[in-house]
Amino acid sequence: xxxxxxxxxxxxxxxxxxxxxxxxxxxxxxxxxxxxxxxxxxxxxxxxxxxxxxxxxxxxxxxxxxxxxxxxxxxxxxxxx
Length: 81
Fold this sequence. Notes:
CATH superfamily: Glutaredoxin
Distance between the termini: 11 Å
CATH class: Alpha Beta
Order of helices and strands: EHEHEEH
Strand order of the largest sheet: 2-1-3-4
């Protein structure tokens, strides 16, 4: 059972890598909170303030930020092998 760090994904509906990340979370029973930064200007600003990035996905796992869907890093941060 993976540990329960909170997972937040900042994404847009048209983002292919966002979709891949969300499918990966679902396949591994990882609960996550999604923020659609295309529709939510406040969350978009929050994402940019946290990451310095305009691109999505930005994935926050606990206190760690991952820009893009870097699967090996995401797996490591979630404690998945």
